[in-house]
Amino acid sequence: MARAGLGAHWRCAFANDFDPLKTATYVANWGETHLRPGDVWALGPQDLPGRADLAWASSPCQDFSLAGARAGLEGGRSSAFWGFWRLIQALGREGRAPRAIVIENVTGLLSSKAGADFTALCAALADEGYRFGALEIDASAFLPQSRPRVFVLAVRQAPPIGLTGEGPFQSRAVRAARERLPPHLRAAWIDWGPAPPAARNSRLADVLEPDADALWRSPAQTRALLAQMNPAHLAQVQAALASGERRVGAVYRRIRIEDGRRVQRAEVRFDGLAGCLRTPRGGSSRQILLVLDRGQAKSRLLSGREGARLMGLPDDYVLPRTATGALHVIGDGVAAPVVRFLAERLIEPTLAGAPALAAE
Question: 283 and 221, same structural domain?
Fold first, then answer.
């Protein structure tokens, strides 16, 4: 999805992923010429061609997730980052280090182990001669999906005038992470300040299939879903039903602690956004759509194609055949319009040494 976001004028020289379903999806969309499936730790610098302008790393997020065990950079899957970084170091020794690096992950990266993981990441970048800064970008600025992610952009050259300063994506968490850094790392920090994007003009309802083409759940299942809502969420539904207007809501089931007991609750939002897409595994349920129309409520699961649209992918983007497979690939992905935004507003101007593009 990073490749889709960068656009056709970027040429991919090398790609790697460990997951067979993701690599099969990559081949279906891009071919296998530049793909090397398997463990990043099994790769060496001899496997990487030439010198890249950009290296993009989206290591698995489970160990950074605020909802997870917070094992950090040294934990299971997210140690894949250090496998990636070992290659960057080797390329540096050969004079082939990429001119720019983007490291994308969940926002928990900023605070993992009280900030120690982020400090270790920044130290690794600085040791290889990179200057760096982080942005917290929610895909909702571009798409009707709430999907906050942190993007660390590191470069070897000073950014052109106009790309730095106060900006909309220097969140409180980014500022706190910066302030926790020791002085020698703060000296290498860049306050990336791209001009904000144009206002989003799409809503969740805009990406959905027509009602007639959808596979709806039974009325009993919808009643059971409503019965799982707490009074505040149920009141939202009842008010919308009373209006008679068509409303589309996104629902996730979550475990809440109530009176010392674990209770499964269905939580709905009617703000025109889907909740953050997840991989349908490890207790993360699939997102449910609740449609209220003319005083009636009906529900269904979000489809794989609808999930792809919520990531900014075109309808000709090839997905796994099953909804579970499609959402597995999509849930671990990066929203393509966010990648295009970073490329257009920061990466390409920095590499070209040109002024930043003006806000739309």
Answer: yes
Locate 359 and state its tokens.
């806000």
Cα torsion 251, 310, 31, 349: sign: negative
Same domain for 190 and 245? Answer: no
Q: Provide the number of structural domains found in the chain.
A: 2
CB 102 within 8 A of CB 56: yes
* 90, 223: one domain: no
HEC per residue, 209-267: CCHHHCCCCCHHHHHHHHHCCCHHHHHHHHHHHHHCCCEEEEEEEEEEEECCEEEEEEE
pLDDT along the chain (360 residues), means of 10: 94 95 97 94 94 91 47 61 92 97 94 90 95 98 97 93 91 97 97 94 96 96 96 95 95 92 94 92 73 96 96 97 93 96 96 56
Judgement on whether residues 139 and 216 belong to the same structural domain of the protein:
no
Same domain, yes or no, for 236 and 343?
no
Q: How does DSSP classify residue 74?
A: T
- Listing DSSP states for 139-195 in one string gives GGGTSSB--EEEEEEEESSPPPTTSBSS-TT--HHHHHHHHHS-HHHHTTB--B-PP
To the nearest 10°, report the CA torsion of 179, 180, 182, 186. Answer: -30
Q: Measured between alpha carbons, how far is 89 from 96 in angstroms, rounded to an integer?
A: 9
End-to-end CA distance of the chain: 24
On whether the pTM is more than 0.70, the answer is yes
CB distance 160 to 349 below 8 Å: yes
Q: Calculate the alpha carbon distances from 81 to 104, 115, 278 in Å.
A: 11, 17, 21
